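1st attempt posting a full record on here, be nice pls
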Amino acid sequence: MSLSLGYLIGTGIFTVIFVGLVGAEVNAGKFHPFLYWATIVATTTLGTTIADFADRSLGIGYPGGVAIVLSLLVASLAIWYWVEGAVSVQSITSPRVEWFYWCTILFSQTLGTALGDWVAGSDRGGLGLGYEYGAVIFGVALAMVAALYFWTSLSRTLLFWAAFILTRPLGATLGDLLDKPVADGGLHLSRLYASLILLAFIVMSVLFIPQRPAKAGSAA
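the predicted structure (as tokens):
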């Protein structure tokens, strides 16, 4: 909220951007890596403002924010499954399913943000473990999900959504290391420089890591 617009106005602005990008993604007809990842970034920014609005503006604290967003995520998955009979990435074969996917991605990002704030923050009912320990906790949890993927036969759909939720608090705590004060365990970079560093990393990853859409009908 560096522009001092407030969480509610910020949520409204990013909602418009999110809807516009999802609409473009749904109507694209084929996979465009930069459009896809721009939409992912839009879910991240909107999810952050939603989580912050719940935690701060509504005054329910981090545990209350986690509870609300978790309920929204479960409801999104339940409705998606009730309507379509599947919630896997491989089931995305129509515009309606893709809207379900992006709404669920949004709530996953929001939950990840709320979890990261709850673990790292020392105010509003947070556990106060700090950004470094938060990054370690979520990194280990993500590694455990990866191990379950490679060495067990657990549902790939369940593991996908678990991993996706965990990437957000891991990324948030690592991002906080860049711009938070040194006294709070950060590097105290400006929001602008921290954002430019992360943007450069995303662009390089899209350019140099092979990108491909999920194959419809393959195992979840």
